[in-house]
Specification:
The chain is an alpha+beta fold. 23% of the residues lie in helices and 34% in strands.
């Protein structure tokens, strides 16, 4: 699942994407993490989004739930929609032309 989600997204970035945590708040089984992304897109726009992750852990310390909050308006403005981004990440296909068809 992750490769199908992240490959089209990361294909839009000019360089390596960085996401740096600036604050952690923990209480009981919940940890809240504030982060800021840092990357330019191949189109030349900045995608420096801000994130807030609310993570819930079980008694063994395993992550069992994650809720992500982010600036969706920035994502819509700067990034291609998933279907278009996935198509851009795939090699272009040349349509096969039937030699017996007349296309005049």
């Amino acid at each position: 699942m992750r490769p199908e989600l992240f490959r089209p997204l990361f294909a839009q970035f000019e360089g390596s994407y960085r996401n740096r945590a600036s604050r952690f708040v923990a209480e009981d089984d919940i940890v809240v993490v504030e982060c800021r992304g840092d990357v330019a897109t191949k189109a030349g726009a900045r995608y420096d989004n801000q994130y807030c992750y609310v993570c819930r852990f079980d008694d063994a310390g395993k992550l069992v739930a994650l809720t992500e909050y982010m600036d969706t308006a920035l994502a819509e403005r700067v990034l291609a929609p998933p279907g278009l981004a996935a198509a851009a990440a795939r090699p272009a296909r040349v349509p096969w032309k039937n030699a017996s068809s007349n296309t005049e």
